[in-house]
Amino acid sequence: xxALIQRVxxxxxxxxxxxxxxxxxxxxxxxGVERNDSQANADKLLRKVLGYRIFSDEAGKMNLNVGQAGGxxxxxxxxxxxADTNSGLRPSFSSAGAPxxxxxxxxxxxxxxxxQGITTASGRFAADMQVSLVNxxxxxxxxxx
Length: 145
What we know:
This protein is of the alpha/beta class. 21% of the residues lie in helices and 39% in strands.
């Protein structure tokens, strides 16, 4: 399981001209599910995302996690993160999770984040989404479990 996280001032996701998820300050989490991912992968990645200290403390140092900073999550499914780009000029998605499996792990991740007390919004799995964000920093990290 892969998460590309971006520290944002705000972020939103639209489907067919309707906003389906939006947050103020926090993290935009682009979530990719790989073949053979498990609950252990999802739980480990969520711990990393929620614990990653990329928000500024009083001294201006990246020392706070999203919860300590009072931020929210916007989780958007992003199967292209699981692409194999090692050869050729066309990505292969053979390592991406099957759609039904990926959708189940995506919803699990969102629910588990909510259960941790973090305000969490989400996109719509497998939809054609338009994601808008104001990347704060910019600060972007690739996490994998």
